[in-house]
Amino acid sequence: MIKALVYFRDVLAGRLAETDDGYEFQYEAAYLAWPQAEPISLTLPLRKEVYQSNVLFPFFDGLIPEGWLLDVALRNTDISILDRMSLLLLCCKDCIGAVSVIPVNEEDSYV
Fold first, then answer.
1. pTM, entire model
2. How does pLDDT run along the chain (111 residues), one tens digit per residue?
3. DSSP letter string over the chain?
4. Which of 70, 84, 93, 100 lies in disulfide reach of 7, CB 3.0 to 4.6 Å?
């Protein structure tokens, strides 16, 4: 399982995971309780239930660069263009916009 922390304007908003069954995203309880909480996307409104999908959520897939920037990332790694989660984790730690996706190591106990 590949996991990531999702930050919205430098505040931990939720967790994204690639599982054997697809993908899951869930907002953090503390973020949902925060008075200034906003959804990270209109397609992922605030809720405590887990979002599940067979494919990477379009919002997250849209964060992955395209064109020459994607070509640079692919040339400098052994990641397949079809491995969207790995590309997301490689390219979106500090992407344009309010959302950042930070990879989490399996041994990290807080996930």
1. 0.86
2. 889 999 999 999 999 999 999 999 999 999 999 999 999 999 999 999 999 999 999 999 998 877 887 677 777 777 777 778 888 888 778 777 899 999 997 655 454
3. -EEEEEEETTEEEEEEEEETTEEEEEE-HHHHHSTT---SBTTB-S-SSPEEESS--HHHHTTS--HHHHHHHHHTS---TT-HHHHHHHH-TT-SSSEEEEEE-TT-TT-
4. 100
Dist. CA 14–CA 62, nearest whole Å: 17
